[in-house]
Amino acid sequence: MDESQKPATPPMPPRPRAKPPLWARFMEKLLQPWIEIKREPVVPPFSLDRPICYVIETYGLSNTLILDRACREAGLPSPLAALPGDPLGRKRSYVALSRRRAGLFGRPKNRSHSDALSRLLMAHRLYPDQDVQLVPVSIFVGRAPARQSGWFSVLFSENWVLVGRFRRLLAILLNGRDTVVQFSPSVRVWEILGEEMPHERQVRKVSRVLRGHFRRIRTAVIGPDLSTRRLLVDRVLDAEPVRKAITDQARRDGTEYLEAWKKGHGFAWEIAADYSNPVVRSASFALTGFWNRIYDGVNVNHVETLKQVAPGHEVVYVPCHRSHMDYLLLSYLLYNRGIVPPHIVAGVNLNMPVLGPMLRRGGAFFIRRSIRGNALYAAVLSEYVSQLVGEGFSLEYFIEGGRSRTGRLLAPKGGMIVMTIKAFLRAPRRPVVFQPVYIGYEKLIEGKSYLDELTGRPKEKETIWALLKAGAGILRQHYGKVAVNFGEPIFLDSVLAEHAPDWRERNADPDDKPTWINGAVEDLAHRIQVNINRAADVNPVNLLALPCWPRPSTPCPKPTCWRSWR
Questions:
Q1: What is the pLDDT of residues 427-470, one digit of tens each?
Q2: Is residue 37 helix, strand or coil?
Q3: Residue 342 has pLDDT above 60, yes or no
Q4: Cα separation of 258 and 142, whole Å?
Q5: Positions of E strands within 248-323
Q6: Strands 52-59 and 133-141
Q7: Interior/surface letters 217-241, b for 16+ CB within 10 angstroms, e for the rest
Q8: Which domains does the chain have, with CATH numbers?
Q9: Euclidean distance between CA atoms 393 and 389, whole angstroms
Q10: Where are the strands (E) in 189-338, listed by range?
Q11: What SS3 string covers 370-403?
Q12: Could you tell me the pLDDT band of residue 117, with boundaries at 50, 70 and 90?
C-alpha cells in the first residue's frame, strides 16, 4: 500500500497503563529481589501517540516479566494489556519471534514462527482503522558481570545459545542484577505493509528483518556468534577449492574420496578455533589478578584511533612478538575496552593438553610451522582464513613468525598476509585494515631462556610440565611495566591501488596468484614493521641498557656500557 492509500488515522492519546494480571504481579514480586534493570536508552526512542506492540526475540516467562517491569519503570504501556481492538487475540501487546519447546530441565528443540505477528499484520489488512507501531526490545541477563562476580555468574552470563528454562532461572538468580533492556526505534505496521505481496510471504519477510535486527543488537552488545566450529568446518570442506584439493589428494594416494575427505576434515578440526564467550569472560577475570601480580602497570596508548577505524572494517592486528604474553595481553586489553577479541594464529606446538583447548576457546586457531608439500592442508588453511575474513571476524598474527630474542624485529614472513589478501580479493565484503601494535616490556618473562639460547643452548620444547614449572617461578617475580601502543593503521585498499589499480575489476581465482601480489606483500610487511617501530616506547630499562658510542680512544663515562667492561 502506497502513501496515498495509507489510512489517515489521527494520532491516539496514550492509553492508561492497565494493571497486569494477578499471576504476573505475584511472579514479579518473586523476581523483584533478583532483578535490577538498566534501560538503554533511558528515554525510549519512540512516541506514545499510537498503540505499541513490543517485539522480543524469544518467548519466556522471565522475558515477559522483565519487559513489563522495564515498561512500568519507563512509564510505558504494559505488554500484558490488550491492544485497542485486541488484534492479537490474546489480551497481550507483545509478540515473540521464537518460542522454546522443552520441559523444565530440557534443552530447546526448535523454533517456530510467530502466529501473533501474523494475526497483527492480517488485522491491519482487514481493518484499516488499526495503526499499531512495533517496538523491538532486546533483553540481556548478565551482559557484563562485574569484576567481583563469581565463576558461576560468568558461566551463566548472556550468550548466543538458546537456553532452557532451568538454565535461564540460574542466570536470573546469579546475574539478574545486571539485566539490560534495550528499546529500539519503532516502525508502523502500515510502513511494513507498504509493499504488496502475499500474506505468508509478508510474515516471513518481517520475521527475517526483525531477526536480523536482533542479531545486530546482540552482536553489538556481546560480540558476534563465534561458537560455530562445527558449522565453519563444514563450510570449509564444502568450498570448491577444498573439494578439488580432496579429489587431487585421493588421486595421489590411490584411495577413495571419503578417505581423503576424512583427512581434510582432520586438518580443519585441528586448525579451527572454538570461541567461547564464558571462557573469554572467565579468562579476563583470572588474567586481571595475574597482571596485577607480576606487572607494575600496563600503559595503553592510541586505542582511540583503533575505535574510530574499526567500525565497518575487517581488522587484522599485527603486533611485534617478544613474549608468549603478547597475545594474552592484547586480547585482554581489547576485551576490557569493549572490542571483541580477534581470532589468533598460533603455532601447533601450543596445542598441548589443557592449554590448547583453553587457547582454542579464547579464539586461537593452530597452524603448522611448515605446509610445503601438503597441498590439502594448505587448501584447508587458506579456505578457513577466507571464511573468517568473509564473515568479518578480526584476526591477529605475528608476521615475524616467532619471538624475537634480541628485541629487534625479525625479517617478516608473508604467508598469512598472502592468505588475507587472497581471501579479501575473493569476497571484498568489508575493507581490511592492518593495525600494527607495539608491545614493550621492562623485563621479559622468557628473559633467562633467551639468554641461554643466545649463548648456544638449544631451545626447549614447550610442554605442559615446563609451563607449570615456569608458572610457579613467574608468580614469585615482578616484571616492571608494559607498554601497548597502537600504531598508525594501514588500509589494504590503498596498498592494492598502488600495486594493482584495476584489482576491483579482476575476477579472483582461488588458485590464481597474481604477478603483483609478491610486491604488494613485501610493501605491506615493510609498512607494518615501520609503523610498529614508530609506535615504540622507550622505558627506563631500555635507556639503562642502551650502549653509548664515544670515540674508541675516549673512556666511556657510563658504567653500564659494554665498553667500560673491556
A1: 888 899 999 999 999 988 888 888 877 777 777 776 767 677 77
A2: strand
A3: yes
A4: 45
A5: 297-301, 314-319
A6: parallel
A7: bbeebbbbbbbbbeebbebbbebeb
A8: 3-222 (no CATH), 229-535 (3.40.1130)
A9: 6
A10: 297-301, 314-319
A11: CCCCCHHHHHHHHHHHHHHHHHCCCEECCCCCCC
A12: confident
**393 φ, ψ to 5°?**
-75, 135
Q: Which amino acid does the sequence have at 457?
A: R
Phi, psi of 443 (to 5 degrees): -145, 130
- Grid coordinates given for 249: 589428494
Which three three-digit cell numbers place residue 307?
A: 575505535
DSSP strand E in 264-401: where? 297-301, 314-319, 343-347, 364-367, 395-396
CA 305 – CA 417 distance, rounded (Å): 22
Note the pLDDT tens digit of each residue in 45-80.
Answer: 888 888 999 999 888 888 888 888 899 888 898 888
415: Cβ contacts below 8 Å, ≥ 6 apart: none
Residue type, 427: A
Spatial CB neighbours of 320, under 8 Å, sequence gap ≥ 6: 326, 398, 400, 404, 409, 437, 438, 439, 532
Residue with cell 578439488: 244
Are 521 and 498 in contact by the 8 Å Cβ rule? The answer is no
